[in-house]
Design brief:
Structural class: alpha/beta
Strand content: 5-15%
CATH architecture: 3-Layer(aba) Sandwich
Helix content: 25-40%
Radius of gyration: 16 Å
CATH superfamily: HUPs
Number of strands: 5
Order of helices and strands: EHEHEHEHEHH
CATH class: Alpha Beta
Oligomer: single chain
Distance between the termini: 43 Å
Shape: globular
Largest sheet: 5 strands, parallel
Length: 220
């Protein structure tokens, strides 16, 4: 049995990923991070799922490093960009070196837990915007992880070649309930329906001929 640490944000991709790990029969633990994101509501969704599923779950408060990671609309007083997910404005949502920091901490957790692998939910739709979600990043991160400790940990992104729509399709095949996920970058009671993240999610549901179970302020 493979023991997997899943970097679990509470969003669609990591929710599908953690369920993939569970259904494949792996021993699963989850780790989530509060890095000062406006949409920390996602952490409640992660917490609730792990409690219901009886999965060991760590929520790590790293808000103290927020001042080192400036310039992102996700953490600073900068308006969340609206429109298409691939628009150039979405680069405003890059948090400096976020995935390297989070995955490094997940690797440390894996070593201390005697786990074998760290999984995170990067997908092909992220490649244009986020350098730390590209195949070459995953390859290099895995190579470093394998030599950074006496206990080698593999870093994997099982959805790296899939689109959001394809990930949703896999989740539907697993009979997953996407009302248990949060995607919107705005920290409000309802999903905004206007930010790039909401637009990408809604497009995935349309491409699968499904209705999104979340309620939106605006449905694009």
């Amino acid at each position: 049995m493979v023991q997997v640490i899943v970097v679990y944000s509470g969003g669609m991709d990591s929710y599908t990923l953690i369920n993939k790990a569970i259904q494949e029969g792996h021993e699963v633990q989850a780790i989530s991070f509060d890095y000062g994101q406006k949409h920390k509501k996602e952490l409640l969704f992660a917490k609730n799922f792990c409690e219901i599923s009886r999965i060991e779950h760590e929520i790590v408060d790293i808000t103290s490093i927020k001042n080192l990671l400036k310039g992102s609309a996700l953490t600073d007083d900068i308006a969340i960009p609206q429109g298409g997910y691939a628009d150039n404005s979405m680069k405003l949502t890059i948090v400096p070196n976020r995935n390297m920091i989070l995955i490094s901490m997940a690797i440390g957790y894996a070593v201390s837990s005697n786990a074998n692998e760290v999984w995170f939910g990067a997908h092909s739709g992220d490649h244009v915007i986020y350098p730390d979600c590209r195949p070459e990043f995953v390859e290099k991160m895995n190579a470093l992880s394998l030599i950074s400790d006496y206990q080698p940990i593999s870093v994997k992104a099982p959805f790296i070649d899939l689109s959001k729509s394809e990930i949703l399709s896999k989740g539907v095949e697993m009979n997953l309930d996407y009302s248990k996920t949060w995607t919107c970058y705005e920290g409000k009671d309802l999903a905004c329906g206007l930010c790039g993240s909401c637009n990408e999610r809604l497009e995935a549901f349309r491409e699968n001929n499904l209705d999104d179970p979340l309620e939106y302020y605006v449905s694009s």
